[in-house]
Design goal:
about 55% helix; binds protoporphyrin IX containing FE; Globin-like
């Protein structure tokens, strides 16, 4: 009965054009490019959310001034990039986050990214993880999750 009343009320008060509700915050884990690792050991090795936040901030800050790849980031939404990368890394590392970003191929479409650019970003990520004192073993586990995404990111 309540549902019927609500449905009638909704039908009686159409939303004026231009005032349509925005899309709800969409979690789209399937877009994250890989599945999470099992367990929480890797999440702990990355020092959990504060560690991942520091690594992503350090990675993005390095990448946008890295003369090898800085040009690719010009004019892009860096605030969104930091947010979605933090979500993606947390998701992949078993931190239990939801990923709300686009899929990898769509995100990097038309950016002209080449293998050398991919390698430069990995280099920046390794520096960011080392600065956070993540062990080489744990670093390699994240890199192993990211490596297969190369085919979606690099343009041929
Ligand atoms: C495995 C490697 C990579 C991962 C996991 C990754 C992850 C991401 C994520 C999560 C986003 C945001 C998606 C969204 O906005 O919904 C993104 C966007 C972006 N990425 Fe990557 N990325 C990778 C490689 C690269 C490389 C190698 C470059 C350039 C050297 C790059 C440059 C960019 C740029 C410029 C954007 C913003 C594009 C836009 O907003 O339209 N990415 N990436």
């Amino acid at each position: 009965m309540l549902a019927l009343i609500l449905a009638l009320a909704a039908a009686a008060t159409p939303v004026p054009p231009g005032e349509q509700p925005v899309d709800p915050y969409a979690a789209a884990d399937a877009n994250a490019g890989a599945t999470p690792v099992a367990g929480q050991r890797l999440w702990h090795a990355f020092h959990e959310q504060p560690g991942v936040d520091r690594i992503v901030d350090s990675l993005v800050s390095r990448a946008i001034v890295d003369p090898r790849i800085a040009e690719i980031f010009k004019g892009q939404d860096i605030v969104r990039l930091r947010r979605t990368l933090k979500e993606q890394f947390c998701y992949l590392l078993g931190g239990g986050c939801r990923y709300s970003g686009r899929e990898m191929a769509a995100s990097h479409h038309n950016l002209g990214i080449q293998t050398k650019d991919f390698n430069a970003l990995v280099d920046d990520l390794q520096q960011a993880m080392s600065r956070e004192r993540v062990s080489p073993f744990a670093q390699n586990r994240l890199l192993a999750k990211l490596a297969p995404m190369k085919r979606s990111v690099v343009e041929r």
